[in-house]
Amino acid sequence: MLSVDEAREVVRAAVRPVRETEQLALGDALGRVLAGPVLAERDDPPFDRATMDGFAVRAADLTSLPRRLEVSGEVAAGDAQLPHCDPGCALRINTGAPLPPGADTVVPVELTREEVEILEPVAQGGNIVPRGGFVRRGDEVASGRLTPERLAVCAAAGADRVAVLRRPRVAVLGTGSELTTGLSEPGDHEIRNSNGPMLLALCSGAETRDLGAVADDPEQLLAAVRRGLEADVLITTGGVSKGVRDYVPDTFAACGVRESFHRIALQPGKPVWFGEHVGGVVFGLPGNPVSALVCADLFVMPYLLACAGGEWEHALLERRARITRPIQASPKRRRVFPCLLKDDEVTPIPWRGSGDLWSATAGNAYLVIPRDHALAAGDETVCLVPERHAASTWSA
Ligand code: AMP
Ligand code: MG
Q: Is the CB of 235 under 6 A from ligand 1?
């Protein structure tokens, strides 16, 4: 049986980065990964620009202070026609206005009195950003994932449409004859499919396809898995354990998916299945909701991030913390246990097994409990924090 680390290496080695691109309006591209660098269409600023409200002057007029100058006009941001600044003169100027010809310095209004006596020295070129002072035409202004800041820079650089990597396509399928279709009230023998909405939500950065749930029936399963294999990534839940109706691994094999691993030394999540086929990869997660969640965080989320042009490591951050309560180890498997992490203290969440999604909602991280290595209160240990919870692990 593979260890968790070995299994993660197998999944990592299977990453198939998305290469196809699509054109998007900049307003629709937040969070997407640029297919290539965006270049500046012109210099920024495109003209010598005043950075203060005050007076545009000639530095040669300021050799002895105080100095009275004649205010011969004004320049505002957006003015296309600029008056000339003659010797002995000053032009009133606003922040953002182009520097008028003849002037080489802006004196902030705070260093003057009346209109206008210059009281304090300003170096030549002071309070001006020269044309191209930030970016030159053709310079790279943005690459990688589009944050609001990079989006603004693209807008400033004139890129109102951008080429981005297409998102990975993910299909999510629940399996189990006990699952309701969601169309009717569940009978007492049935349960609602919670894994589907959970995985679709986890994968919301991808292009998701909800395949609903299918019964433990080889034919129905085969048809549903075939549909799922059209996606880059198929995620199923349930049917990978040792029950007599656990048909999922055989179904994958019948569809030409090569098994990379089945069952690993992990608690919860031991039955997890992973494999590859010509068109993509398949994660067969266990049906128990906490097992499915743990496996999604350990394997699926890093896989998707790496496919989409991000860094595998960024999906699950490692932190060290002291445990507030003792916790038992499993003799044969690594435990990856929901917990609440705050600063450098971590508290395990009391729970009632891998079906107990209710308790797991109190968590924001996972405690890692090495095989056969119980932890005492006060022990330092490793915690894994899913990217989506990173902010909540620090006190405000
Ligand atoms: P299995 O992995 O198929 O043996 O299922 C293990 C447990 O998870 C069973 O109690 C199932 O009823 C439950 N389960 C399976 N699929 C889902 C699902 N989609 N949503 C919620 N619970 C599920
Ligand atoms: Mg089942």
A: no
Torsion of CA 122, 127, 131, 136, to 10 degrees: 110
Whether ligand 1 lies within 6 angstroms of the CB of 284 is answered as no
Tell me the pLDDT tens digit for each residue of 233-268: 999 999 999 999 999 999 999 999 999 999 999 999
DSSP state for residue 365 in the 8-state scheme: E
pTM to 2 decimal places: 0.90
Enumerate residues with CB within 5 Å of ligand 2 (an ion). 176, 238-239, 287
* Distance from C-alpha of 371 to C-alpha of 219, rounded to nearest angstrom: 39
Q: Which atom of ligand 1 is nearest to the CA of 240?
A: 2
Residue 182, pLDDT score: 73
Q: How far apart are the CA of 287 and the centre of ligand 1, in A?
A: 4
Phi, psi torsion values for 266, nearest 5 degrees: -135, 140
Q: Which of 334, 327, 225 is nearest to 2 (CA)?
A: 334
Q: Rounded to an integer, what distance in angstroms lies between the CA atom of residue 289 and that of residue 311?
A: 26
